[in-house]
Amino acid sequence: MTSSPPSDYIRAEESKLDQIKKWADKLDVLSVAATQDPEGFLGHPVNAFKLMKRLNTEWGELENLRQHFPNDDDQTGAAKALMRLQDTYELDANVFATGDLPGVSSAASLHSALMVSDCYDLGKVAYSEADYYHTELWMAQALRQLDQGERSSTVDAITVLDYLSYSVYQQGELERALEFTKRLLELDPDHQRANGNLKYFEYQLNKHKKVELREKEEVRLKRSQADDYLPERKKYEQLCRGEGLRMTPRRQSRLFCRYYDNNRHPRYVIGPVRQEDEWDHPRIIRYHNIVSDREMEKVKELAKPRLRRATISNPVTGVLETAHYRISKSAWLGAYEHPVVDHINQRIEDITGLDITTAEDLQVANYGVGGQYEPHFDFGRKDEPDAFEELGTGNRIATWLLYMSDVQAGGATVFTDVGASVWPKKGTAVFWYNLYANGEGDYRTRHAACPVLVGNKWVSNKWIHERGQEFRRRCGLQETD
């Protein structure tokens, strides 16, 4: 058996090093901003998508270094998140392409633009999902940038027009499909599929002289909705944009701010907390400056190594599983793990007056690009007989939601049944009861976490259960007390 001389080994390693250097040079433009403020940089959805794409697709030649890189699913997830933001906040493709999003400075926008190839890849992701609405939007944006003189070594107008003609045809717009096909054939007269499509589209137009406007609009409004498309989607998205709030001026005038000591609790007699009414029915309260920056950073530090894709409890099987409508990462922290966690738990008990010994551990959640949790209830409904049965502590009587970061744009907590929007503010916590005093669920508390448009959202939840509250929150004389 013969061994290679040391010089061969050295040359092989030098070759690998050269590859890494070339790869690093490509990353320079992104890395300067990213290393200065990683969370801020990746808080811009365009930056997050571009970094995912480059690590997964464009630098695939470094196969032996890719075990910790994003994969195809990550890149597709980032693309879908961007399109979800596009719909929720009613932003056109050009706004994303220029990076000029709400809450972003003009200087930051310059480094967050989408190139033709990026727009094309977004369109391809939509196409692979049979989402022809978004395919059209992103292919049209790619074509617009090509028409404006942007050059691309990987994408040409012929390919873009091919996708465009098919996507608008699938949406029932034969005239536009024919226009795109004719333009394609001007660039490539021998394009086989386009020549076939030209004849077919002309035949269909002659057969159906006029497509009713109403029918076309119905097709466009479908936007390839998922099978489990939420009937309350419109209301949810309106609230996320800060629209459609139902609070009248008269009701608004009855909401107050006050100093609160929870019936002269010894910890708060001298230093009461600031309490603000966010909503009246159901009552949603915000507490200001409830935790310090040091405490929040410690909670994040403890949670980061354990963050995993958040799960939901399947209402039929009771099994924990991931879901497309809850996109975040979460971790659980017990009181015994660090004094800061124990102190936060004690503070929740002191302020709410509820026993937290039967509450769940503190859940820490991070919502990155497009992170959201669509409308849901925190309490178990009657059609979920096994909800929280294993805990043996009854239903979730109340929710404490602590905001551990500010969010530049998006990320509101909205209550879809009553039309309330609560916006994140670092160091504040909101609190509400999920159950009436008689133990029945309050369906007005259906709520959602809106997608984060720009920024990085950190929250922690404390779900407080019924057991132990028998003498702390007594039943009233009325059914709904």
Mean pLDDT across the residues is 85
Strand order of the largest sheet: 1-2-3-15-11-18-9-8-4
Distance between the termini: 86 Å
Structural class determined from secondary elements: alpha+beta
Largest sheet: number of strands, sense, barrel closure: 9 strands, antiparallel
Question: Which blocks of ≥5 consecutive residues have pLDDT under 50?
Answer: none
Rg over CA atoms: 27 Å
Shape annotation: globular
Overall number of strands: 18
Helix content: 40-55%
Could you tell me the strand content as a percent range?
A: 15-25%
Question: How many distinct helices?
Answer: 16
Task: Give a brief outline of the structure.
The protein has helices at about 5-35, 40, 45-60, 70-90, 95-100, 105-110, 115-130, 130-145, 155-170, 175-185, 190-205, 215-220, 235-240, 250, 295-305, 340-350; strands at about 255-260, 275-280, 285-290, 310, 310-315, 320, 325, 330-335, 360-365, 370-375, 395-405, 410, 415, 420, 430-435, 445-450, 450-455, 455-465. It has about 475 residues and is an alpha+beta fold.
